[in-house]
Amino acid sequence: MANFHIMTKPNGPICNLDCTYCFYLEKEHLYSSRKSMKMPDDVLESFIQQYIQSQDAPTIPFAWQGGEPTLLGIPFFERVVELQIKYSDGKQIENSLQTNGTLLDNAWGEFLARHNFLVGVSIDGTEKLHDAYRIDKGRQPTHSRVLRGIRILQQHGVEFNTLTVVNRINSYHAHEVYSFLKEIGSKYLQFIPVVERVSEQPNANGLRLLKPFSPHALTVSEWSVESLQYGIFLQQIFDQWVRADVARTFIQVFDVAMESWLGLQQSLCVFTRTCGSAMAMEHNGDLYSCDHFVYPDNKLGNILQRPLTVLAASQQQARFGKGKELGLPKDCLECDVRFACNGECPKHRFLQAESGEPGLNYLCAGYKYFFHHIDPYMQFMTNELQHDRAPANVMDWARNQQFTAR
């Protein structure tokens, strides 16, 4: 079977922060009977062995997320590295760790540097923008602690990128967000739109943030980014980037757009035609179809009971992955930027299309706006690449256009 990716939650949704928009904190209700959500050693060892053996590739990437994985402490990840060495069988192992950064200290910096971890740090912009939603359990701001963590990584030479959740507030401050991220030394930026729908009453599993086609009455949360505004946010950053920062600052959504214009398979699952190759595993070995679909009916099984390869290749997962393309309404199928969007993430498909069909993505208006805007620049860079020239030449070309940033 084709290679697949697992986002691993070694302590489930347990976190030291209480971010307003976090969709994962409430997953604790799914495991409320467990005394501990620390991944047991037998699960950890079985996962590492199975995952390495399942991948037909010379390099095996592990992704550790949460919750907040640094709550497990350095000894847990020392055990991770020990087991990876034990089962590596000559393959190169790469580790990435997504963290809120607040618990990083010199000991963490030394460990992460020694073992070449790539660290993703969640930060939403300047202090005011970040602290609007990213608070701790005591309702206290966290921005200064995140910056301290980033400085630790820089002091120890740890490679890091930033993950910025684009929400109802910071989406109106694109220039401020982008300038700040560059100022703190981030050269690899991810922008993730937050879109959640909330039920007035929790369902039978204690969850209030529910997926499309739920029978419950749902409303878009007050912290969710507005569709068109998300497109404007991306456009405003793009207009700065394309005139000054190409090949200097790397922004995931722009890189993936370049893949689309080149006719390549997109490297980010939300923009691929089908999905299903990026799954999520909970602390006890339960495997789910996707990080955004950790719901009982999307559980594929447990890796201690059925092999990881069997679960990943199951008919249930195949249906989930194909459903992304098969569920597109006619409006999407006929859209001129479908090649770049492919309907985006199924989690966001809860609107009705103009034809009355269900399944239109909530972010559709924003993506149309953004992809139409960047089309001439993407065409220019595509042409440069096809003629063995540097796509960064677009900066001079863009600066010479009759163009005013919005």
Structure description:
The chain is an alpha/beta fold and 406 residues long. It is built from 14 helices and 14 strands. It has helices at 41-54, 74-87, 106-114, 127-131, 143-155, 174-183, 227-244, 252-261, 308-312, 315-326, 330-333, 338-341, 364-386, 394-399; strands at 5-8, 59-64, 92-99, 118-122, 160-166, 188-193, 197-199, 218-220, 250-251, 278-281, 286-288, 299-302, 351-352, 358-360. The longest helix is centred in the C-terminal third of the chain and has 23 residues, at 364-386. The protein is globular and about 60 Å long.
What keyword list fits this structure?
406 residues, single chain, globular, 14 strands, 10-stranded mixed β-sheet, two-stranded antiparallel ribbon, 36% helix, alpha/beta
Q: What is the average of the pLDDT values?
A: 95
Task: Indicate the structural class.
Answer: alpha/beta
Helix content: 25-40%
Kindly report the spatial arrangement of strands forming the biggest sheet: 9-6-5-4-3-2-1-10-11-12
Brief summary:
By secondary structure, this protein is an alpha/beta fold.
Write the layout of secondary structure elements.
Blueprint: E1 5-8, H1 41-54, E2 59-64, H2 74-87, E3 92-99, H3 106-114, E4 118-122, H4 127-131, H5 143-155, E5 160-166, H6 174-183, E6 188-193, E7 197-199, E8 218-220, H7 227-244, E9 250-251, H8 252-261, E10 278-281, E11 286-288, E12 299-302, H9 308-312, H10 315-326, H11 330-333, H12 338-341, E13 351-352, E14 358-360, H13 364-386, H14 394-399
Parallel strand pairs: 1-2, 1-10, 2-3, 3-4, 4-5, 5-6, 6-9
Antiparallel strand pairs: 7-8, 10-11, 11-12, 13-14
Helix pairs in contact: 1-2, 7-13
